Amino acid sequence: MKNKQKQREIRRNDQEEATIVIDASGTVHSINEQAAQLFELTNIAIKHITSLLPGINIASLKHGTVAQQFGVKGDGTRFPLYVRKNKFPLNGKELILLVFHQNNDHTLSGMEPQKVVDELMDMKYALDASTIVAITDQKGQIKYVNDKFCEISKYTSDELLGKDHRIINSGYHPKEFMRELWRTIANGKVWTGEIKNQAKDGSYYWVDTTIVPFLNSQGKPYQYLAIRSEVTDRKRIEEELQETMSKIITVQEEERKRLSREIHDGIGQNLYSHLITINRLSTAVNHPLVEQMTEEATQLIQEVRDFSWALRPSVLDDLGLIPAIRSFLNRYSENYGVDVFFDCSLPYRLDNNVEITVYRIIQEALTNVRKYANTDQASVVIREDEKRIRVVIEDKGEGFNPEALSEGVGLISMEERARSVNGLLYVKSQKGQGTTVILEVPV
């Protein structure tokens, strides 16, 4: 083993290439010694790749191919060189490795066969040492697994080869999740995400996964490479944080409920008693101040009721989600002039926490509509689909650029509420074409 590592180190020293690591924006993360020598840099604190390659277009460079560029040395001298672009994931981010040569025949495509094999073996060695690797054919049958795959799944390679990944399926993810995964890779696109699997002994583990399709000459996948890293501990911490957040939200809602009742039954009733007294006084005394007192008391009572309703509508606890939404939409349309179409086919009541979550997210989403959408129409649709509740709040207003979306308090609140019931929240928008908020909750 030591001899093999020594040989590998010797080959690396003989064949060391000039390399620079950047991200998709062109920001330089590292420059090796050979690259510093190639560009004759006395100070390698280069922030952006365009300082060395002014004419480079990172997005237009194809993965694994060689392109000629003009570099700029430390003294400003321009010189021709060849560059090869490779991508690789690191800590959840995709980075780009640029490999430089002054002669094109030193690139991988021009290497001697043994050098190509050596480089590929080095890459395989690095992958096997650091990640969980599997290769499947186009039907999903496993053709190769490394030791780390066997270690985490508790299966031997003989038990895995020829099977598909259903052997480690935990049943956690909905069918649509897996369908979308297969749709993505079958179309030749890379899929990334987190998957919960089940080991042979029944234990569960989470993996951060990247699946890369290998394409034939017709552009169709003939096999898939899955690279995974275990994130079970991180997911456990996230679940603990989610549980804590759920408890906080429950306490907040209970406090809202208590305050709402006290305001309605305490302050509201006292004000109503004063209004009765003022009405009695008005029958005995004909004075403008009495009439003014009546109007002010009536207004105060309505404001107290509105405030109590905003804290926690009693109809939500007494009658359930659907009557509460209808009541909210009536008030919303009357107060803000926004006509909201509502359609719901739920034949039963949901869990109390789920009902509160759905109500609050609809409330927050429609608040954003009246503030920012500049429209007089919106819609709320609730459906049950494959053991989940799907809520869609949509408007045809101004919309916005999702890339410029800042996570304000409202959006963060909706996402935290969704997570508190193991739900997912999606926000889709396009400038000039409105916004759609989608909540999916398992039931």
Please describe what this structure looks like.
This protein has 443 residues and is α+β, with helices and mostly antiparallel strands. The chain has helices at 2-15, 33-38, 113-130, 147-153, 157-160, 175-186, 232-284, 288-311, 314-318, 321-336, 352-373, 409-420, and strands at residues 18-22, 28-31, 66-72, 78-90, 93-101, 132-137, 142-145, 191-198, 204-215, 221-230, 339-344, 377-384, 388-395, 424-429, 435-442. The chain has a 5-stranded antiparallel β-sheet with strand order 2-1-5-4-3. A 5-stranded antiparallel β-sheet has the order 7-6-10-9-8, sandwiched between helices. Mean pLDDT is 83; it is low at 1-15 and 105-113.
Major beta sheet summary: 5 strands, antiparallel
**Helix and strand run:** HEEHEEEHEEHHHEEEHHHHEHEEHEE
Cα shape: elongated
Quantity of strands, as a count: 15
Structural category: alpha+beta
The side-by-side strand order for the widest beta sheet comes to 2-1-5-4-3
Query: How many DSSP helices?
Result: 12
Poorly predicted spans: 1-15, 105-113
Distance between the termini: 54 Å
Q: Report the average pLDDT across residues.
A: 83
Strand content: 25-35%
Give the helix/strand layout.
Layout: H1 2-15, E1 18-22, E2 28-31, H2 33-38, E3 66-72, E4 78-90, E5 93-101, H3 113-130, E6 132-137, E7 142-145, H4 147-153, H5 157-160, H6 175-186, E8 191-198, E9 204-215, E10 221-230, H7 232-284, H8 288-311, H9 314-318, H10 321-336, E11 339-344, H11 352-373, E12 377-384, E13 388-395, H12 409-420, E14 424-429, E15 435-442
Parallel strand pairs: 11-12
Antiparallel strand pairs: 1-2, 1-5, 3-4, 4-5, 6-7, 6-10, 8-9, 9-10, 12-13, 13-15, 14-15
